[in-house]
Design goal:
InterPro entries: Glyco_trans_1, GS/SS, Starch_synth_cat_dom. Its EC number is 2.4.1.21. The protein is of the alpha/beta class. It is about 35% helix and about 20% strand. The protein folds into two domains: about 270 residues, Rossmann fold (3-Layer(aba) Sandwich); about 190 residues, 3-Layer(aba) Sandwich (Rossmann fold), CATH 3.40.50. Helix 5 crosses helix 6, helix 9 packs across helix 12 and helix 10 packs across helix 15. The radius of gyration is 23 Å and the shape is globular. Bound molecules: adenosine-5'-diphosphate-glucose (ADQ).
Length: about 500
């Protein structure tokens, strides 16, 4: 490395403003931009989905028909170059794999060829670096979808001098998803079958992409210190404890930031009226607007609890639904915006019918409504079973909507719990521990009491949250240190 400025190839299968299903996209937009501000030459590689195509102009076309040849298999694909703020994005255009409406599934089931799709993507990213003559210092991989890249570097490409000084980081945004596939479903992998070790496999004949990455990457990190610590425990390791223990010295946690360019109530163009910490009148208008939009009674004093989430077991619906059955007897309003698991959606629809006028469930995914809920609600619900970091609670803090969270992972690292509703002191939200509906119900009732009976404390709680900052620039400095330690450790180790 001849300068302090690094060349970083950032691999992500979703990027905010291009294609998104969840928090990975938020990070894949904000972190590269923060790294650019530090002067690094960071470039993103992502798949070319139809959503990305909507952003495309003629000038974005870069390379036609790059060819990836593996034995008898040949993949001919194009690359488009887009610009996201100050960061170049190389988008891999291979229609048989990426020209589909869903990123990972058809709305009901994961695509059966996901292993093949993302193995191809992970190798294509390496080919793109070579075709651009961009020899990266660091390849930053994210979750299982891109976890094969370090494996390919250590096996198929181990003799390739182009990547001689390249080191890899694998970031875990959610280690519950591991990318486990029958080898037979991945033609791309036939060539690598005999390079796989037992610890990268499940039951002898299925490949685990995340484990391939965990065993091959130079450094590994989780998206919060508490999640990193939980991964080192039998209960929190998603059944991968031996692997995490084996990589203990290369493993760390870095808390995500919050992108205040996109999530700031004083500048948010999606809100009917903006507001800030010192002028909260606009928030009352946002609440009225949200109630009107959802068809709820426009009552300023009725506490409104909001949730914006992927519909998945992780997000704590097993706690929330029974808790709501008791909570909705109060004079409250609850709105849940979500998309994902159809079974959870069905249960929410049934509850909405039962508690008409008090519970609203909107199935779908619209950024605008997510912003409206963050601004219009009085409390934000996030009772996750586990949460690697969580971004929506950071947004709710910024919007003066105190979060109600379970004290796990990044939620524990970002929300300061209310201990006494008469004096919230420096608290920013409500936190419960036990994964029990009654524990959640208790804190929801405390929140209700605070809102109704201690308006000064409620206002203080809002203020505390709005004054809290989780800056991407700070997180980027920590990533920079981690990249440099990856480079240094390896260089020393190789001497
Ligand atoms: N129905 C809907 N409509 C509109 N917007 C919706 C939506 N459902 C979700 N979103 C948006 O998707 C993002 C969700 O981010 P989170 O970090 O809270 O969770 P997620 O589990 O997806 O991310 C994973 O990766 C991130 C990033 O590292 C970790 O913070 C997190 O803990 C981990 O589970 C937010 O921007 C939210 O507004």
């Amino acid at each position: 490395m001849d300068s302090d400025k690094l060349k970083i190839l950032f691999l992500a299968t979703e990027v905010e403003d291009l294609a998104k299903t969840g928090g990975l996209a938020d990070v894949a937009k904000a972190l590269p931009q923060a790294l650019r501000r530090l002067g690094h030459d960071v470039r993103i590689v992502c798949p070319f989905y139809p959503q990305v195509q909507e952003r495309l102009e003629e000038k974005n076309h870069l390379h036609s028909e790059l060819s990836l040849q593996l034995d008898s298999l040949q993949y001919l694909y194009n690359i488009h170059l887009l610009q996201l703020g100050n960061v170049p994005v190389y988008s891999v255009d291979y229609p048989p794999y990426f020209s589909r409406q869903g990123l990972y599934d058809n709305g009901y089931h994961p695509y059966p060829d996901n292993g093949e799709r993302f193995a191809f993507f992970s190798m294509a990213a390496l080919q793109i670096a070579q075709s651009l003559d961009f020899a990266p210092d660091i390849i930053h991989c994210n979750d299982w979808h891109t976890a094969m890249t370090p494996f390919f570097l250590r096996t198929q490409l181990s003799e390739n001098r182009f990547f001689d000084s390249t080191r890899t980081l694998l970031t875990l945004h959610n280690a519950a998803y591991q990318g486990v596939f029958d080898l037979a479903s991945i033609p791309f992998h036939r060539r690598f079958e005999n390079r796989l070790s037992c610890e990268q496999m499940e039951d002898g004949n299925r490949i685990n992409f995340l484990k391939c990455g965990l065993t091959s990457a130079d450094k590994i990190n989780a998206v919060s210190p508490s999640y990193a610590a939980e991964l080192m425990t039998p209960l929190g390791s998603h059944h991968m404890l031996p692997l995490f223990q084996q990589r203990h010295s290369d493993f760390s946690g870095i808390l995500n930031g919050c992108n205040y360019d996109d999530w700031n109530p004083s500048t948010d163009p999606l809100l009917p009226r903006t507001y800030d910490q010192h002028h909260l009148e606009g928030k009352a208008d946002c609440k009225a607007h949200l109630q009107q939009y959802l068809g709820l009674k426009e009552s300023p004093d009725t506490p409104l609890f909001g949730m914006v989430s992927r519909l998945t077991v992780q997000k704590g619906f097993e706690l929330l639904l029974p808790a709501l059955e008791r909570f909705l007897y109060n004079d409250v309003q609850v709105v849940i915006i979500g998309s994902g698991d159809p079974e959870i959606a069905e249960r929410l629809k049934a509850m909405e019918e039962k508690y008409a006028g008090r519970l609203i469930f909107r199935e779908g995914y619209t950024s605008k409504i997510a912003h409206w809920v963050q601004a219009g609600a009085d409390f934000f619900l996030m009772p996750s079973l586990f949460e690697p970091c969580g971004l929506t609670q950071m947004y709710s803090l910024a919007y003066g909507t105190p979060p109600i969270v379970r004290g796990v992972g990044g939620l524990k690292d970002t929300v300061k719990p209310v201990k006494d509703i008469r004096d919230v002191d420096r608290a920013t939200g409500f936190v419960f521990s036990q994964p029990e509906p009654t524990a959640l119900l208790d804190v929801m009732c405390n929140a209700l009491a605070l809102y109704r009976e201690h308006s000064d404390s409620y206002a203080k709680l809002q203020q505390n949250g709005m004054a809290t900052r989780f800056c991407w620039d700070d997180a980027a400095v920590k990533y920079e240190q981690l990249y440099k330690s990856a480079l240094n450790t390896e260089i020393t180790a190789n001497q």
